[in-house]
């Protein structure tokens, strides 16, 4: 066991390198990289690590970074990249292509506000912009999860029942540049945990066309196949969790993580690092005699609608805390949860937009507003300055 004081950026780079080395007996590892705050130090570290049978290629743009990853993946290599904010937006065309090609690429996305006006602090709108691109999306709460989930993402993505790329998402600066004690996976354990990648549809010497023209019915078939693969993710993820715990002794998060929900009459739902602060407020509410609980959404795609509905079925009032905004709608998580569950009393709150500190007193204001409600209103922006 190796405990190190690491930022989440460095934890992700070390995990990606370990996963790359684990494929040295097959087609190796490849990465296309381009810097953007606040993920730059991840690819800087990755570029300096020794990866047997691996290449890290600096390129001229995020669009090209994903193109390089697609090329490596089509050749059967294990692949990784990282990006953020407007970099993800610039990369979007190839992000969609990677999902459609069913390439098991893993990308660390550092959640940052999209500009202009320019803002380098946390907001989930950049990755949620890409929620329909055919990638699995997982949102981390701490640095240990970033490290573990990058490794686990390969086993999920490369499973032949899935074959979908994965975004491992972390909050800008709150995690990316914050030092935490992180247990680093030993290489021999990573080697055992990750089977050699044998991509069934990789390119061989026989020439084939990739990305040809689809007619309408063919597109329908491909979209159905993507949906079916997403539908298998939950079951495969349980297997990945069990294998990871057996090898490393740590439990990976479930798609939804309930906290003190068994008898809860009011619940707060969140993603990412906000969830840890929400739990503090739930404990404070319990001390006041209020039956409060929390639900953390870890896997946004595929959206775990049935699990969310089951966890909240008995709760009278639900507040959803979004660190994003869809203009003209409200928070994205709120809209998806409300649609997936059909629960009548789901109020939306947008909080910490543009990276404002989300403190217990801010979430306590949300809880007080929710407790005082007799009906759902328009989504609210909670000021945290």
Walk me through the structure.
The chain has 385 residues and is of the alpha/beta class. The protein has two domains: 2-248, Rossmann fold, CATH 3.40.50; 256-382, Rossmann fold. The protein is 41% helix and 19% strand. The protein is built from twelve helices and 15 strands. It has helices spanning 8-21, 40-48, 62-74, 85-100, 125-128, 143-158, 187-193, 216-248, 274-287, 305-312, 332-341, 360-371; strands at residues 2-6, 29-33, 54-58, 78-83, 106-111, 136-139, 166-171, 180-184, 256-259, 266-270, 292-297, 299-301, 317-322, 346-351, 380-382. The strands form three sheets. It has a seven-stranded mixed beta sheet with strand order 3-2-4-5-7-6-12. Helix 9 crosses helix 12. The longest helix has 33 residues, at 216-248. The chain is globular, with a radius of gyration of 20 Å. 51% of the residues are buried. The model has no long low-confidence stretch (mean pLDDT 96).
């Amino acid at each position: 066991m190796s405990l190190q004081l690491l930022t989440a950026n460095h934890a992700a780079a070390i995990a990606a390198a370990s996963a790359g080395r684990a494929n040295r007996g097959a087609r190796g590892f490849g990465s296309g990289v381009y810097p953007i705050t606040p993920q730059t130090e991840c690819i800087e570290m990755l570029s300096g690590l020794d990866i047997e049978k691996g290449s890290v290629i600096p390129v001229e743009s995020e669009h090209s970074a994903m193109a390089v990853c697609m090329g490596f993946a089509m050749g059967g290599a294990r692949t990784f990249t990282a990006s953020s904010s407007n970099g993800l937006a610039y990369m979007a065309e190839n992000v969609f292509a990677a999902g459609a090609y069913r390439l098991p690429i893993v990308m660390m996305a550092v959640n940052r506000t999209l500009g202009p006006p320019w803002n380098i602090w946390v907001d989930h709108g950049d990755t949620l912009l890409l929620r329909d691109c055919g990638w699995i999306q997982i949102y981390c709460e701490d640095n240990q999860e970033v490290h573990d989930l990058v490794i686990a993402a390969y086993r999920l993505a490369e499973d032949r029942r899935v074959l979908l790329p994965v975004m491992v998402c972390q909050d800008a600066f709150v995690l990316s540049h914050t030092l935490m004690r992180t247990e680093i996976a030993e290489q021999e354990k990573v080697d055992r945990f990750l089977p050699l990648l044998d991509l069934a549809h990789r390119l061989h010497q026989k020439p084939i066309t990739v990305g040809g023209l689809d007619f309408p019915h063919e597109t329908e078939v491909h979209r159905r196949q993507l949906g079916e693969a997403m539908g298998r993710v939950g079951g495969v993820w349980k297997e990945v969790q069990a294998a990871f715990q057996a090898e490393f002794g740590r439990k990976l998060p479930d798609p939804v993580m309930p906290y003190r929900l068994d008898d809860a009459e009011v619940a707060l739902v969140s993603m990412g690092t906000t969830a840890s602060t929400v739990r503090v407020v739930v404990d404070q509410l319990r001390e006041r005699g209020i039956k409060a609980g929390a639900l953390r959404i870890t896997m946004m795609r595929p959206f775990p609608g049935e699990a969310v509905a089951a966890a909240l079925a008995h709760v009278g009032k639900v507040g959803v805390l979004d660190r994003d905004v869809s203009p003209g709608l409200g928070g994205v998580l709120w809209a998806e949860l409300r649609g997936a569950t059909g629960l009548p009393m789901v109020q939306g709150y947008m909080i910490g937009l543009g990276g404002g500190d989300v403190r217990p007193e801010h979430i306590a204001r949300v809880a007080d507003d929710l407790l005082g409600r007799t009906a759902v209103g328009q989504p609210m922006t909670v000021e945290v300055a």
